Here is the input.
Amino acid sequence: MSQAPHHGRYHWPRRLVAATPVLPILIVSAIVLVDLVCGSGMTWLPLLAVGPALAATTNGPRGVLWVGLLAAALGAILGIRDDAGARELAVVLAALMAVTLAGSLASALRGRRERVLAAVRSVAEAAQHALLQPVPATVGPFQVAVRYSAAAAEARIGGDLYALVSTPYGVRMIVGDVRGKGLPAVGTAALVLGVFREAAYDEPDLLAVVARIERSLARNLGSDDFVTAVVAGYPREGQLEVVNCGHAPPLLVRDSVVVPVDPDRPAPPLGLRTLSGETPALQVLPFADGDQLLLYTDGVTEARDHEREFYPLADGLARHTCDEPAHTVTALHDELLDHVGGRLHDDAALLLLRMPAPAVTPAHHDVPNTGRVGSCSP
Here is the structure.
């Protein structure tokens, strides 16, 4: 036999308690008590309208009507007890019921807006998972950690983009920032990521991947739109390729020292090559065991505190670097939020990859190597 009715008997009291407008009822009760104690006729009765008005902000239409009817009934009893005039009492009760009906309508509209917002958030979350696909903790030989925050917290998605994929030509990644905000920026980010994921598997040369993204943007973007980006790849052991298209330089961590990877030859953002005629250059970096590379967007470095000071990302990275990228990125993100006072005003993305050092079992007489980054502090 089904047990659903049995469980329902146990849960409906909880739902009833949760839906009961406790505070509005307490306010109505307090007004009634004051009237009983003071016995001042019609002085306090108009304040009973506070009950249904407050219920409209916290409860559904039924709760508002319930509070309004309770207040009207108590108001009528008190009015008769205090020998209030029939005309005055009728006006007070009419006003009370008008507030109740208006509150019920407002509560219904609020509930509808909340349901619409919940649906929008659900769609935004689905879009984010489709656009910014989750990155596993390990990709190819790398340990990886990603943190993304949209400036429009309700939307859960913005114009910053990132992707990291394992291909026949090694691990490849992109971090970029679309000019502008809102749905047009999200559409451009989706375009860039789609072309990148396709080209990363097809093109042996990293510059050819960048060229395909450039051609696609040239066909689809307006004359004033562009995307800054860093595209990187790990084609062979110990070697990292970087192509910087007008983006903030990545930060390389080696032997606990943070160094910006400035491009050898500056290149324009993606989408503007036809205007400048300049082409991006391929930069090759040694990338050994224990090295880390942080890619980020300008929402991180341009975040300001109340004194208009920028967040010092390189200093923060030097403070928080350890052998667990997830811990490092979380510490950076938390420090960034503290720096801006809790809310970012631009989209911000952080992608950190680390080449783990091979596990070595030292002999008992070996002296530990203290020159490398140690374990993360708890």
Q: What stands out?
A: The chain has eleven helices and eleven strands. Residues 1-8, 10-18, 364-374 have pLDDT under 50 and may be disordered.
